[in-house]
Amino acid sequence: MNGTEGPDFYIPMSNASGVVRSPHEYPQYYLAEPWVFSFITIYMFFLILIGFPVNLFTLCVTILHKNLRTPIYYMLVNMTMADLIVIVVSFPFTMHAAMHGYFVHGQVGCNFEAFFTVHGTQITLWSLVVLSVERCIVSCSPGMDIHFRRRFIVKGISFTWLMAFSCSLPPLLEWSRYIPEGLQCSCGVDYYTLKPDIYNESFINYMLTVHLIVPLTVISLCFGRLLCIVNNEAIDKLEQDANCLTVILTLGFFICWLPYASIGWHIFSNQGSAFSPFTMTLTSFLAKSSVLSSPLICICMDKQLRQCMVITLCRGKNPFADNVEASKSTSISSGLVAAA
């Protein structure tokens, strides 16, 4: 056997030599050198140090400025709140565990950390699905009533939270389980065992179908439709910019998360096969960096959001833009407000 399974853990290493220990009770330095865990600690501290202020400031600016209260920014607020939940609740657990070389918080802490990570990730995923559908509808029907779009997005936000709970809650209700993964200092869904007593196989199939294949299919269909009408003259530049922003946001998210999901599916489909704990660790921590992607992409691509941030920082003035430029500046959000 290429792995060692315990009551609440699975370590991808044979225990023939007797060195494997519970990741809830003992340091896992037989999996990697101590400096590797120190590096993970520093990396998690970096994500918290950068991710928290960037997401919080983006959230505050979006709420404070009325010209940003438009459908696309409603969804950005939803995604930013999800990222903040992950950063504030989950990341400190991971950083503290990496400092000690094992998941010191026990199974309860593992459930807590993994639940909020999965929940926040699913909110972002389904937010991108709703946003893609909204972009497709608007692009196919130019001039659509802004009030209808707002109602659609508000209902979509409720839908994202419902779908997130449908993925994050079952492992807490004994349909599958959360266990330490990789170098055993962060937790996730159990891809490693079939565990028939908690119907783990059916949950993994459900999760990968409903919470990966379905969103990817819907997003692909919407983007395919957008590609077919990209040269439609009825779609003004502001809507095209919004479409481009949505596409880049989605690509940024999937670049971070698809390696992790792909490795998880491979491990689940090849039960008992040998794999390095570094594999899941690298993909897992790449996925965690997605908390920075959404706000940074929006800041880089949306001029209006950047201007609002500068105005907020400079107490009502933008020292980098003269009056003429400011009067001519346009953005995704200002165009949507004008259409109202």
Automatic annotation (TrEMBL):
<keyword id="KW-0449">Lipoprotein</keyword>
<feature type="transmembrane region" description="Helical">
    <location>
        <begin position="274"/>
        <end position="299"/>
    </location>
</feature>
<keyword id="KW-0675">Receptor</keyword>
<dbReference type="GO" id="GO:0016020">
    <property type="term" value="C:membrane"/>
</dbReference>
<keyword id="KW-0472">Membrane</keyword>
<feature type="lipid moiety-binding region" description="S-palmitoyl cysteine">
    <location>
        <position position="314"/>
    </location>
</feature>
<dbReference type="InterPro" id="IPR000276">
    <property type="entry name" value="GPCR_Rhodpsn"/>
</dbReference>
<feature type="disulfide bond">
    <location>
        <begin position="110"/>
        <end position="187"/>
    </location>
</feature>
<keyword id="KW-1015">Disulfide bond</keyword>
<feature type="binding site">
    <location>
        <position position="271"/>
    </location>
    <ligand>
        <name>Zn(2+)</name>
    </ligand>
</feature>
<dbReference type="GO" id="GO:0004930">
    <property type="term" value="F:G protein-coupled receptor activity"/>
</dbReference>
<keyword id="KW-1133">Transmembrane helix</keyword>
<keyword id="KW-0812">Transmembrane</keyword>
<dbReference type="InterPro" id="IPR001760">
    <property type="entry name" value="Opsin"/>
</dbReference>
<dbReference type="InterPro" id="IPR017452">
    <property type="entry name" value="GPCR_Rhodpsn_7TM"/>
</dbReference>
<feature type="transmembrane region" description="Helical">
    <location>
        <begin position="35"/>
        <end position="60"/>
    </location>
</feature>
<feature type="transmembrane region" description="Helical">
    <location>
        <begin position="114"/>
        <end position="131"/>
    </location>
</feature>
<keyword id="KW-0716">Sensory transduction</keyword>
<dbReference type="Pfam" id="PF10413">
    <property type="entry name" value="Rhodopsin_N"/>
</dbReference>
<keyword id="KW-0157">Chromophore</keyword>
<feature type="transmembrane region" description="Helical">
    <location>
        <begin position="203"/>
        <end position="223"/>
    </location>
</feature>
<protein>
    <recommendedName>
        <fullName>Rhodopsin</fullName>
    </recommendedName>
</protein>
<keyword id="KW-0844">Vision</keyword>
<feature type="transmembrane region" description="Helical">
    <location>
        <begin position="152"/>
        <end position="173"/>
    </location>
</feature>
<feature type="site" description="Plays an important role in the conformation switch to the active conformation">
    <location>
        <position position="113"/>
    </location>
</feature>
<feature type="glycosylation site" description="N-linked (GlcNAc...) asparagine">
    <location>
        <position position="2"/>
    </location>
</feature>
<feature type="domain" description="G-protein coupled receptors family 1 profile">
    <location>
        <begin position="54"/>
        <end position="298"/>
    </location>
</feature>
<keyword id="KW-0862">Zinc</keyword>
<keyword id="KW-0479">Metal-binding</keyword>
<comment type="similarity">
    <text>Belongs to the G-protein coupled receptor 1 family. Opsin subfamily.</text>
</comment>
<dbReference type="InterPro" id="IPR050125">
    <property type="entry name" value="GPCR_opsins"/>
</dbReference>
<keyword id="KW-0297">G-protein coupled receptor</keyword>
<dbReference type="GO" id="GO:0046872">
    <property type="term" value="F:metal ion binding"/>
</dbReference>
<keyword id="KW-0325">Glycoprotein</keyword>
<dbReference type="InterPro" id="IPR019477">
    <property type="entry name" value="Rhodopsin_N"/>
</dbReference>
<dbReference type="GO" id="GO:0009881">
    <property type="term" value="F:photoreceptor activity"/>
</dbReference>
<dbReference type="Pfam" id="PF00001">
    <property type="entry name" value="7tm_1"/>
</dbReference>
<feature type="binding site">
    <location>
        <position position="201"/>
    </location>
    <ligand>
        <name>Zn(2+)</name>
    </ligand>
</feature>
<feature type="modified residue" description="N6-(retinylidene)lysine">
    <location>
        <position position="288"/>
    </location>
</feature>
<dbReference type="InterPro" id="IPR000732">
    <property type="entry name" value="Rhodopsin"/>
</dbReference>
<keyword id="KW-0807">Transducer</keyword>
<feature type="transmembrane region" description="Helical">
    <location>
        <begin position="244"/>
        <end position="268"/>
    </location>
</feature>
